[in-house]
């Protein structure tokens, strides 16, 4: 693996060195480095051996990133971009735990690739992008430099992270935009092992104070709906997945910003191969939905405070182990996150954060007495450097 990663780096540097001086003026390098400290207030901060002999890891919210105990690493992010008059590329590489979590479905030598795409501005109004790009759904992003809160929401964690495919961005007017795409199934970014595809649409409106985006995603994730030859007897396939997502954010005043994200995701009950044919399975679809509000206020030029409140609901066992569920497979969580952004310099930010996760069902978390609890309170302090 190290040799393969070294080979990627050598090829990358070789490409940069072959560019002319005029080309180099169009190349930019940016990125970030982050680390953090995290501790629970009302739960253990270390692994525990339970009475049945199994090991339980440190208690943490079931969201992506910022879930490790004590002093922990985020990621190093290096983004190289070439911006020509009509064409260009972006090579976005990530290293560290946060980066590994972001590209969890990648394999082989490209498991450090967060984004890798080329684009062509066909006209002033139409741009085509081909390759691996971060998702257009949701309010939050993978890089900590793009979020106010350091820890991430449930909706972001279980919506898509990245896509590989072809998309067209179309400027309809000065304020309205449309994006249409065809892509591999969600987060299958290196290649397509299942032979099915997703379609994506986004309608956006932006003005000087912010914007609103309506996002749609539809497709077959596992590729087993019509491929009986790939199914062993009595094997199951998931049905098609549909997700609709609304993201909006506006500056209410010079010092106050308000953002909203709402999403709904459902996967049909699917089909079963009984050894001779594919038959429909009974049952309702499964999935999740949620709503989050983001309120941020600038106390001074160098310090801002932000509150994220999120309600997240799982239905019909739509996600395994994310929240506590009842006998019907339904459950929800309310998470409240208060964060500060302290700007130490132009490139360096400290983010203190307090978070409370409260489940609808008991016994999801363990408290300091190792008794079941529905809530978890925690603190973290993150340091983020960008360049």
UniProtKB/TrEMBL annotation:
Query: Which Pfam family, giving just one, matches this sequence?
Result: BBP2
> What are the protein's UniProt keywords?
Signal
Question: What superkingdom does the record give?
Answer: Bacteria
Q: Where is the signal peptide?
A: 1-21
Designated name of the protein: Beta-barrel porin-2, OmpL-like. bbp2
């Amino acid at each position: 693996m190290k040799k393969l990663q070294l080979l990627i780096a050598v090829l990358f540097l070789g490409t940069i060195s072959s560019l002319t001086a005029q080309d180099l003026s169009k190349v930019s390098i940016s990125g970030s480095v982050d680390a953090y400290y995290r501790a629970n207030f009302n739960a253990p901060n270390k692994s525990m051996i339970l009475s049945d002999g199994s090991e339980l890891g440190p208690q943490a919210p079931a969201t992506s990133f910022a879930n490790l105990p004590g002093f922990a690493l985020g990621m190093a992010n290096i983004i190289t971009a070439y911006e020509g008059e009509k064409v260009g590329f972006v090579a976005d590489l990530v290293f560290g735990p946060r980066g590994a979590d972001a590209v969890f479905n990648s394999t082989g030598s490209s498991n450090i690739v967060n984004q890798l795409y080329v684009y062509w501005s066909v006209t002033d109004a139409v741009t085509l992008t081909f390759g691996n790009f971060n998702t257009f759904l949701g309010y939050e992003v993978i890089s900590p430099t793009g979020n106010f809160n350091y820890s991430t929401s449930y909706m972001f964690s279980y919506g898509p992270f990245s896509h590989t495919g072809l998309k067209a961005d179309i400027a309809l007017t000065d304020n309205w935009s449309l994006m249409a795409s065809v892509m591999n199934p969600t987060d299958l970014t290196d290649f397509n092992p299942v032979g099915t595809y997703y379609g994506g649409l986004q309608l956006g409106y932006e003005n000087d104070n912010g914007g609103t985006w309506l996002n749609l995603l539809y497709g077959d994730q596992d590729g087993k709906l019509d491929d009986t030859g790939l199914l062993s007897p009595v094997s199951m396939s998931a049905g098609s997945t549909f997700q609709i997502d609304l993201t909006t954010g506006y500056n209410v005043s010079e010092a106050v910003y308000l953002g909203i994200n709402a999403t709904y995701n459902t996967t049909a009950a699917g089909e079963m191969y009984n050894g001779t044919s594919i038959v429909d399975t009974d049952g309702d679809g499964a999935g999740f939905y949620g709503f989050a509000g983001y309120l941020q206020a600038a106390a001074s030029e160098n310090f801002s405070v932000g509150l994220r409140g999120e309600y997240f609901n799982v239905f019909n066992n739509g996600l395994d182990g994310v929240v506590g569920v009842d006998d019907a497979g339904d459950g929800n969580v309310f998470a409240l996150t208060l964060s500060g952004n302290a700007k130490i310099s132009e490139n360096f930010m400290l983010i203190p954060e307090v978070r409370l996760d409260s489940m609808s069902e008991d016994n999801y978390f363990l408290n300091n007495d190792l008794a079941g609890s529905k809530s978890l309170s925690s603190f973290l302090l993150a340091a983020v450097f960008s360049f």
